[in-house]
Amino acid sequence: MTTFMSRNDLFLFLGFTVVVLAMPIWLAPFGAGYPDLLQRFMIFGIFAVGFNILFGLTGYLSFGHAAFFGVGSYAAVWSFKLLTLDAIPAMIFAVVISGLFALVIGFLCLRRSGIYFSILTLAFAQMSYNLAYSVLTPITNGETGLQLTLADSRVLDAAMGQTFSGQPVPTLLGQQLGGYAGFYFCAGFLILAFFIAQRIAGSPFGMMLKAIKSNQTRMQFTGFNTRPYALSAFVISGMYAGLAGALLAVTDPLAGAERMQWTASGEVVLMTILGGVGTLVGPVIGAWIIKYFENILSALNDNILARFWSFLPEGAADFMVTITSKFVGDGWHLTLGLAFVIVVIFLPGGIMEGVRRIAAAFRRSGSSSAKPSARTQPAE
Amino acid sequence: MEKSNVVLHVADVHKRFGGLHALADIDLQVEEGKTHAIIGPNGAGKSTLLNVIIGKLAPTSGQVVFDGTVLTGRKPYQINQLGIARVFQTPEIFADLSVLHNVMIPALAKRDGMFKLNMLRSLDSETGIRAEAEHMLEDVGMITRREMLAGSLSRGDKRRMELAMCLIQHPRLLLLDEPTAGMSRHDTNTTIELLKKIKSRGMTKVIIEHDMHVVFSLADKISVLAQGRIIADGSPDEVRGNPKVQEAYLGGAH
Ligand SMILES: Nc1ncnc2c1ncn2[C@@H]1O[C@H](COP(=O)(O)OP(=O)(O)O)[C@@H](O)[C@H]1O
Ligand SMILES: [Mg+2]
């Protein structure tokens, strides 16, 4: 057990698991303890954890990961339509398909690095997005989006003699996956995704990824073929994205191409940077914070704002409503952009760096007698 | 009895950068187990020569042969896997990783080859590699700094660590590009002692060095490079006595 996982890793994993499973309780006072939002916390947490394996560990910034997310969604819905409404085959199918898709795109994009790599991923993702609306409409059902109907063949369900009445919904062993069941289903996958990411980061392979990020030239002169390492990281993160996309299809079995748009790719970049690039929990926290504020701010409208500012004299209230309305509702991306700029300028390591700084300040004030070890920076 | 046993042969290599003839008709033979020093003024083409050997640059013409294998056209990682390691003029290290990890990585390259997808194994279970790396760090006198971030080391320590990164691979051929530049006198002497120790283990070395004290205390053979050409080569005494060398290089320096 000691070589399987260090004590610190074990504590981190257990702590993470408890925090996730107890979310319906501790998020209730924040008005976020309801299943629909909790499911999104899990799904985008998985997306961000996987993205961090490529961006945070290996240093390759992809602007096209929403493509794998979208492919995962489509693959899952097709599994529901053709095979069975059970969620597990859909998950497996989605992860395999998005992994294959990532293998092809990664193989092509990784011929370049730096900004050229980023541009290539963006180009491929936008191509996928446009194809989903045009040539691929037989697979994606275009703008309407791919959805479940009673007429779907569902060969496995049919073979088992199962019949449905009403709108078909995804299930797990016959149980419907709505509400809290859906949340715990997604939570299980987030915990598993976190565990695997933790193992990868703590493995020799993970160290190689960090070394590639740090100095790719040195890696090559040290005897490593860096291409398959980067490609593995790309495929793994693509599979994470596909898993997240599939889970979104489980909780909401209507797959549309907007999930593949570049704004969705950009969002996972923001989540990762906001939380802390290269850290394990940072990206998850970034995803939670963004989804939380998106949920609150995008629901606000002028009426609510007018009530909020009503304590001011009339002219001032109108003025404040006009100003603040630009930052909420559809304008919430403005708030997100602003918050992002502030974080990158003042806290480039993201929220996790903030946490570290606060912890360090506490430690310093707690043990003022401790000798400052001259310029000895501990690693990581 | 001295029987020549050439392990590295740089054969008729030319390298042009546009109009600049950085290497002209270089023919260099390095014997197994020997330390071959390359000296010459700045801009003579010394680093370029090492770049051609390790596959960072392709020669304009000519080829490099290592122990019967043609290196020219191979990738840097393949050349390393054949047993050639290099210390760079400006240290190439993993600045964001700990000193210990910097040294473990090349050891894993040696053990596992150029790619291995061992991602479910814990790094903590690599006790053998870890012990090897710690032993290596003891050899170069850096064991107390093993948990430090490599990027926060002093210049001299970065060099020593890079040397450890090369030595842990037990390369058959070690290329050193000014390994003592930026080191204090004391650190330079420690490094010389270390390099002498490796020599007794039979490792072949090519060393570029400005410090004549280092060159004459280590080298079995010296080649003098000036403006991309080898203007003299031979034993340290022959080179020291060569008037062309005096004029081109040593005269100015000492
Ligand atoms: N990649 C390159 N592109 C163009 N010119 C180069 C390159 N590398 C080296 N040179 C030039 O080749 C000459 C030899 O450089 P170098 O081998 O670094 O000399 P040194 O003997 O000091 O190590 C210099 O004039 C240098 O500017
Ligand atoms: Mg040089």
From TrEMBL, chain A:
Main location class: membrane
> What keywords sit in the KW lines?
Cell membrane, Membrane, Transmembrane, Transmembrane helix
Mind telling me which CDD domains this protein's record contains? TM_PBP1_LivM_like
Q: Name one GO molecular function term.
A: branched-chain amino acid transmembrane transporter activity
Please give an example of a GO cellular component term from this record. Answer: plasma membrane
Query: What superkingdom heads the lineage?
Result: Bacteria
Membrane topology, from the record: Multi-pass membrane protein
Q: Which InterPro entries match?
A: ABC_transp_permease, LivM-like
Know the name of this protein?
ABC transporter permease
Protein source organism? Devosia riboflavina
From TrEMBL, chain B:
The record, for InterPro entries, names: AAA+_ATPase, ABC_AA/LPS_Transport, ABC_transporter-like_ATP-bd, BCA_ABC_TP_C, P-loop_NTPase
**Keyword NAD found:** no
Q: Which Gene3D superfamilies match?
A: P-loop containing nucleotide triphosphate hydrolases (3.40.50.300)
Which superkingdom, per the lineage?
Bacteria
What Gene Ontology cellular-component terms does the record carry?
plasma membrane
Q: Where is the ABC transporter domain?
A: 8-252
Entries under SUPFAM superfamilies matching the protein: P-loop containing nucleoside triphosphate hydrolases (SSF52540)
For this UniProt record, give its keywords in alphabetical order, as a comma-separated list. Answer: ATP-binding, Nucleotide-binding, Transport
Q: Which GO terms describe its molecular function?
A: ATP binding; ATP hydrolysis activity
Q: Does the keyword Nucleotide-binding apply?
A: yes
Record field: transmembrane: none
Pfam short name (any one): BCA_ABC_TP_C
Instruction: State what protein this is by name.
Output: Branched-chain amino acid ABC transporter substrate-binding protein
Species this chain originates from:
Devosia riboflavina
